[in-house]
Amino acid sequence: RACLEALFLTDPAVDRDRLLDLKGERAAGTCEWILTNQLYKSWFYSDSCLLWLSGGPGAGKTMLSIFLVEKLTTRLPWNTILLQYFCKNEDDKRNTAVAVLRGLIFQLLRYQPLLYGHILPTFALQKESLFADASFDSLWKIFETMTCDPILGTIYCVLDGLDECHKESLKVLLNRFRRHFSPTVDEASTRQLNLIVTCRGYPDFIAESLSRFSRLRLDSQAKDEVNQDVNRFIDAKVDALAAEKCYSEKLRLHVLDVFKRRAEGTFLWIGIVAEELRRYNRIEVENALDLFPSGLETLYGRTLLQIEHKQRSIASKILRWVVLAIRPLTVSELGAVLGVQPGKFSTKEEVVKDHVASCGLLLKIQHGDQVGLIHQSAKEYLLRKIKDPKPDLDFFRVKEGPGHLEIAMTCLDYLQNGALADGPLTDEDVDEGRDSPRIKNNPLLLYAALHWQEHAKLLSASEAI
After folding, report:
1. Does the N-terminal or the C-terminal CB of the chain have fewer CB atoms within 10 Å?
2. Are residues 237 and 217 in the same domain?
3. pLDDT in the model for residue 437
């Protein structure tokens, strides 16, 4: 039990359910084409194989992963096991190679307790340090030994969003996958892991590492099937909007036409715009559609330009902190960063939420009080390296060096100017987190104490604190 508790970071099944809550249910009829695709069928009936599903941002890769998990759960043969994992760039519990391995090993142990024999001897020696980032090699050896144990049958694994892992960490993991699925003659008989990876082909080393394996390109090889799914998704979203907002048939058809002309095959664009249109009544919808141009980057830029000038300085700071934070920040932590004070008739939290809302569709508040970006593509847009020709848009571009310096200095100032007046953090403060009375009085204390040094390390060599 101690080993399992130390191993645990997140439950991938819960992560999947949260993704469904965020994205909404799958539109009827979508994703089903994958089950008859020849590459998928070859993967499913293989003894050990890696299949890479690739596509651009917002192309429906995560929903396809969720669909595959649901279908595999109901059709797996006897003596087989299903593993799942959903990476998330902005969550430090789901964005490293070690986090991935911990999630997969956690599922293996819950499925087959006899596999504890592969981990307990090492855990007895290393204790919690076995699960540190520096212990990747030890964890990989344990994972590989488990997946080759004859007590298990074929292991099916769906690994979503691998490109959202930290680059250096991801390189190491991909290298191990490449070696695992390229066994020697003697090793081949022990391999029983069937892995599906869904991610983009960026950074470039992903394509290089996976080049020898089967690849299904959603934007070319499965273009027709994906386009049909896009149209089904548009139909479902517009029909739901029309029913909720009581559109006339003429208005429904107009909205449907605009979606099909502007979506450019991007599920994310459809989901974002459909959600935004819920804010407008029937009279406003036709003009509101002009606020949503084709393409994700154009949509993100239009959103930034709609922020009122008097709000842009605070909005820029919020976006900078959300983009560069080591883990998702809470509403109260952002309030401490901004130095927010309660209004005459508003609490601090309400004031912060209003500031977050000024950033439009780029930000969302999830899991009650965590502030996050709408999608990984929004983070990449804000972090783009090339100066924007439009000064108003370049104002919001996040420069990593100065940004990490600002965060590190803010955290240190926060710690030095009273947050540590009662002494250093205790184990109780860390264990109880935001429920600790001390953390409630100093909302940024936990983040500042645990992560300022990580921001300092990310500074370029020419910058110092």
Report:
1. N
2. no
3. 79
**104 and 246 assigned to the same domain:** no
Where a domain ends, among 364, 389, 414? 389
pLDDT at position 92, please? 86
- Based on the structure, what is the number of domains in the chain? 4
What distance in Å separates the CA atoms of residue 408 and residue 402, rounded to the nearest whole number? 10
Q: What is the pLDDT of residue 111?
A: 93
Count Cβ atoms below 10 Å from residue 428 Cβ, excluding itself: 10
Pairing outcome for strands 155-160 and 193-199:
parallel
CA distance 169 to 96: 6
Query: Residue 345's domain spans which residues?
Result: 295-389
Given its phi and psi angles, is residue 127 left (phi above 0), alpha (psi -120 to 50 degrees) or beta?
Answer: left
Pairing verdict, β 329-330 and 363-366: unpaired
Same domain, 12 and 136: yes
Pairwise CA distance, residues 216 & 214, whole Å: 7
* Residues 267 and 346 placed together within one structural domain of the fold: no
Question: Looking at residue 24, what is its pLDDT?
Answer: 85
Residue bearing tokens 């769906």 = 158
Low-confidence residues of the chain, pLDDT below 70?
185, 428-429, 431-435, 460-465
Q: Is residue 82 part of a domain?
A: yes
What does pTM read for this prediction?
0.87
Looking at the structure, do residues 154 and 83 belong to the same domain, yes or no? yes
Give the list of residues 6+ apart from residue 291 with CB closer than 8 angstroms, or none: 276, 302, 306
CA proximity to 241, closest of 201, 270, 267, 274: 274
Q: How far apart are CA 457 and CA 133, in angstroms?
A: 16
